[in-house]
Amino acid sequence: MTGKSYPAAPTARVFSGIQPTGHLTLGNYLGAIRNWVPLQREFECLYCIVDLHAITMFQEPAALHAATRQVAAALIACGIDPTRHILFNQSLNPDHAELAWYFNCVARMGWLSRMTQFKEKAGKDRERASAGLFVYPNLMAADILAYRANRVPVGEDQKQHLELANSIADKFNHDWEVPGYFPEIDPLILGEATRVMSLRDGTKKMSKSDPSDMSRINLTDTADQIAQKIRKAKTDPEPLPTEAAGFENRPEARNLVTIYAALTDKSVADALAEVGGQGFGDFKKQLADAAVAHLSPITEEMNRLLADPAEIDATLFKGGEKARALSRPVLAQVRDILGFVHSG
Ligand code: AQP
Questions:
Q1: Residue with CA at minimum distance from ligand 1 atom 12
Q2: Which pLDDT belongs to residue 34?
Q3: Distance of CA 92 from the midpoint of ligand 1 (Å)
Q4: 102, 129, 173, 287: which is deepest, by most CB within 10 A?
Q5: Which atom of ligand 1 is nearest to the CA of 22?
Q6: Is 60 exposed, middle or buried, given 0-12, 13-18 or 19+ CB atoms closer than 10 A?
Q7: Is 3.40.50.620 the CATH classification of the domain at 13-194+308-338?
């Protein structure tokens, strides 16, 4: 034991992040952003546009810059309130990178080697992947724990990274004998559509960086583009099942019905009670209408906000200052715990 005591971690602080790596997709929206909004009623929320994560794969500077503003506009258009909560881009607060270095020294190579996202993103040629991509989960743990946040709303794909963040927190607390200093993180995997799949392949996650634009619905798509992508989405020749058991070996049918359920605020069972037995032709029209009705107001508001980039930047800068005010004392405590000679 160090013999010193530190203030208890806050118990109701939410943190989540999103990468500015392209146009946001319906997957990002249903799996994450939509669930972030109601949490603002109950918790103190920090929502971060994770540009440091984005550069683990090469990003054109101009595209990264534009995507950062676009993600900020999308989050505000979806209902994130930057005046009552904190919205900022990650590089505005260097405390994330400092804590990530400490966590690089805590996390074990074996833990990181098991991360499926690294394996997927690095592909076959791991030798050429950036070191940043390998230690990505350590930075993600630092994003959350720089604020000692304990609730993290994410899509299903991020669950493994949060388990690793908990292993880092445990090892830190144990090795430096500060029980409970970093809190246990509770992954909040919410809603019907926790893993939205590609429109071209129901076994692959819908992703911003998929080379095929037809694989995803972007929050920037027009009504016509949405309708066309849904019309061309891969399906099979059978009518829709009437019960979820009928989705076996039909990943595309499962995906489209799950999207429909999420967009119309129904359970998958209720959606099937409504559309089960229909052919894909009719169902796709219904799905396109639901998607356009849900997404058009968001796209419109995003475009309105994007007309004033200086205002978006000012919002992010303010958020960065508020975030840093919360993380600064945590980093000072961590330096103290580690035994560094420091000035606070
Ligand atoms: N297809 C998805 N279904 C449900 N949730 C999803 N999320 C992403 N894709 C889906 C959730 O969105 C949040 C932000 O994700 P991210 O931008 O940090 O990175 P990601 O998970 O790697 O998302 P992408 O779209 O696949 O980005 P790229 O292509 O750049 O790697 C997370 O909570 C994630 O779970």
A1: 28
A2: 94
A3: 22
A4: 287
A5: 30
A6: exposed
A7: yes
Please give the helix or strand (H or E) that residue 17 lies within, else none: strand 13-18
Q: Where are the domains of the chain?
A: 13-194+308-338, 213-304
What is the band of 160 on the pLDDT scale with cuts at 50, 70, 90? very high
The CA 171 to ligand 1 mean position distance, Å, reads 27
pLDDT at 125: 86
pLDDT score of 67? 97
Q: What is the chain's mean pLDDT, rounded?
A: 96
**Is 131 a residue whose pLDDT tops 80?**
yes
Residue of 58, 143, 157 to test ligand 1 pocket, by largest number of atoms within 8 Å of CB = 157
> What single string gives the DSSP state of each residue in 212-236?
-GGG--BTT--HHHHHHHHHTS---
Q: Which CATH number fits domain 213-304: 1.10.240.10, 1.10.1760.20, 3.40.50.12780, 1.20.140.10?
A: 1.10.240.10
Pick the closest to residue 315 from 88, 47, 91, 143 (CA basis): 88
- On whether the CB atoms of residues 302 and 74 are closer than 8 A, the answer is yes
Q: What is the largest CA-CA distance in the chain?
A: 69
Residue 3, Cβ density class (10 Å: 0-12 exposed, 13-18 middle, ≥19 buried): exposed
Structure tokens belonging to residue 37: 């909004």
Residue 329: which residues within 8 A CB-CB, separation 6 or more? none
From CA 329, how far away is CA 335, in angstroms rounded? Answer: 10
